[in-house]
Amino acid sequence: MGNEKVKKESSLIVIYNLAIFLLALIYFKVFVYLYFVPIAIFSTIFFLHPKIIKQSPSIQLLVQMAMLFILVTNDYYLVGLIDKLSGGLPRLDHFFANFDSWLFGDQFSILFEQLLANLGNLLSKLLNDLLITVYVSYFLNAFIVGTICYQFAGLDQAKTFFFSLMLFYMINFLLYLLVPVTGPQFFLSESYQNQPLFSAWGRLLYSWVREGQTTFIDGFPSGHFGVTFLLTIWLFNLGHRTKYLFLAISLLMAGATMALRFHYSLDLLAAVPLAAISFYLGKRFKTLSII
Predict the structure, then answer these.
(1) Which of 42, 95, 107, 259 is paired with 222 by a 20 to 30 Å CA distance?
(2) pTM (two decimals)
(3) 39-91 pLDDT, tens per residue?
(4) Phi and psi angles of residue 134, each rounded to the nearest 5 degrees, phi first
(5) Cα–Cα distance between 35 and 39 in angstroms, integer?
């Protein structure tokens, strides 16, 4: 059964990356050979699988994390590369910005900027520092919850967890290409009076986020909020004591993505069903796993 799992999931990853490659070649008129990198990686995993499953469960968990990290970072970069090589995909920000203006009476991030102006520099820095810290925690939270899942429910459940995450990212990256949205930070840059106000800690995190951004169409849907919401679903499903903590983190993440000018409300709304679908499919096809 172990090798059969690998065959099924490796085939899924190969088909996905080939589909994105063909989409880029035929629709966007760009040739991105680097989409064969994850194909090569997971083909290697296929052949090494008999050796991997002989390792301890903790080693298998680390391999699981490493493979997800490689797949996500590689395909995220390639989405940005397709956008760049195509000369810039047509942005749809105007639709998203108009929706927020209708919903809030103005852009949420502009209203938040006005609120902070009335609070003073100290409170503004404290609040923005909290939001950017929550925003950056996204890069670790999946591995934290994956470890919780492993310790609380065992390796098989942890594999199902990582498979559901992989499904989320695959759909998410495809939607980046089909619905290119760059976000308020770029589309509405001239509408803001100032850059967000941070302490030295907040400035460090914020600069790290901005400098590490290799894709500029990563607005719809919000991966930060969607993944955090998916982690929360998993913790409630497991009945783990951290579930309410991550529920609070999800709410703060929603606020952070909009207040710090990364996302529109529709980005967050679309992430909710995507997270739910990824959880359902992950559990439904739990015989699949990354290794």
Answers:
(1) 42
(2) 0.89
(3) 777 777 767 776 777 777 888 788 888 878 888 888 898 899 899 888 889 99
(4) -65, -40
(5) 7
